[in-house]
Write a structure and sequence with these properties.
Blueprint lengths: L2 E2 L13 E3 L5 E3 H4 L5 E5 L5 H17 L2 E6 L11 H11 L5 E3 L4 H6 L3 E2 L1 E5 L5 E5 L15 H11 L12 E4 L6
Parallel strand pairs: 4-5, 5-6
Antiparallel strand pairs: 1-10, 2-3, 4-8, 7-10, 8-9
C-alpha cells in the first residue's frame, strides 16, 4: 500500500546529519547545503515507486545542476536488497552521480520526518526547507507519464531565489521499513 508524505513546516533548517556513503565515506548533509540549494531524496533499491522514476530523477539532477544527496533508511536486515550492494547497483542502473547515504539507525529519517520512498526535501541556499512534495503526478500504475515537472519547477524557483508556490503535492511511495523495537 502506498504512503503519502506528510506536510512539513516550510523554512525549517536542514537537520544535522553525518552519514556514510556506500564506500564508507562520511558526508555532512548540512555542509552540502551551505550557500547553495540542496535536494535530499529518501530512496531505496527495492521500491517500485523509486524504480519507476530513478533514471528520470538522475537526469533531472544532472540537467538542473542541483546539489543532491539520496539517503536510504530502510531496515536492511529485513530488506537486504536495500543494503550497500543493492545501492551500488541502483546508482549504476539509474545513473546517479550524487552521494547515496546509509541511515543505519534511522535517526536521520526521523529527524527529517521522512515516511516514504521516494520522499523529496528541497532546501534553499540558506538551508531552509522550500519544497516537500512529489516528483510529478505519475506512479507505476496510474498511466501518467513521468515528467518530473513538479520537482523541476520547484528546483527552478529555488535556484532563482523565489518561493515555491503552495500547496505542494505530497510524494507517494513505499513506506520506510522501520526496524522493530
Amino acid at each position: 500500500m502506498a504512503v503519502e508524505s506528510q506536510r512539513t513546516q516550510l523554512r525549517t533548517p536542514v537537520p544535522a546529519a553525518t552519514l556514510p556513503d556506500v564506500a564508507g565515506v562520511a558526508h555532512n548533509v548540512q555542509a552540502l547545503s551551505e550557500g547553495e540549494p540542496l535536494l535530499v531524496v529518501f530512496a531505496c533499491n527495492h521500491c517500485p515507486y523509486v524504480r519507476w522514476l530513478e533514471r528520470d530523477l538522475g537526469s533531472l539532477i544532472d540537467e538542473t545542476g542541483i546539489q543532491a544527496v539520496a539517503i536510504t533508511s530502510n531496515d536492511t536486515a529485513g530488506y537486504p536488497d536495500d543494503g550497500p550492494d543493492g545501492m551500488r547497483e541502483q546508482m549504476a542502473r539509474a545513473g546517479w552521480n550524487f552521494p547515496y547515504l546509509i541511515d543505519e539507525d534511522q535517526s536521520v529519517a526521523r529527524a527529517f520526518g521522512a515516511v516514504c520512498t521516494p520522499d523529496f526535501f528541497l532546501y534553499d541556499a540558506q538551508g531552509l526547507l522550500a519544497y516537500r512534495g512529489a516528483f510529478d503526478a505519475s506512479s507505476p500504475k496510474n498511466g501518467q507519464p513521468r515528467t518530473g515537472d513538479l520537482l523541476r519547477a520547484a528546483i527552478a524557483d529555488v535556484q532563482a531565489g523565489r518561493p515555491v508556490p503552495e500547496p505542494h503535492r505530497p510524494a507517494m511511495g513505499c513506506g520506510i521499513k522501520w526496524k522493530q523495537s
